[in-house]
Amino acid sequence: MRIYIGFDDTDILGSDIGTGKVARHYERLIPTGCKMWGVVRQQLLVDPAIPYTSHNSSACVVVDCPDASFAEVLKDNAVAHIEAMSLPGSDPGLCVVCQGDPALTALESFGFLCTTRIVSQKEALQASGSAHLSGHGGTNDGIIGAAAAVGLTASGWSGRFIEYSGLRSFSNPVSVGELRQKGIRIVSLDRDACVPGAEDNVNTKDWLRPRLWGHIAILPVKPVEAGLWESLGEKRNAGKQKKQEA
Question: Which H or E run contains 184?
């Protein structure tokens, strides 16, 4: 049983702990018998009319459990976590949905909608149906991003992993074989789509962030030279800019 836990808008301008880090720190509250599969960052629409802290992203923690009986404790722990970690002035939201919940279909559509136009809290609540969606401060606008994070992640075709199989502990460069052993598949985006060999190395530029493609972790790479590949993307060092509500 897979359970999706979406977090959004837990920080403010200049804070050291953003929503992604809040989501990653939730792992320590996962009960025995369950395991965090990964944490996926989702990029939503960037528009001057939308208030956001940095890049209007939200995060979804994906937890694998023996059955749905763990959903309630995961939800209670997530509520306590978001209330403890969210900063004054933020508008935190939380969404918790079990695999197989009928609401996931509507949440997937809602998530993709959040990447193309401005949406409302009412639309988020309608999409979530009977699944758990709650605001925990401020305007409660975080319920929009939290619901979108769950929907987009459940679709299996959106976002990048900010935690998966200890990705932050890999060396750089790292071998293709080592990444495969951890469940990260390497896909070449060069013209001929050559297949990277297990003994080949990947230069991650100290920023290993697989994509969520086809419900699995995929690291897109391009060739550099024989036996060496380079992953796409790199760490962004742009300053945070808080948008004001229109």
Answer: strand 184-188
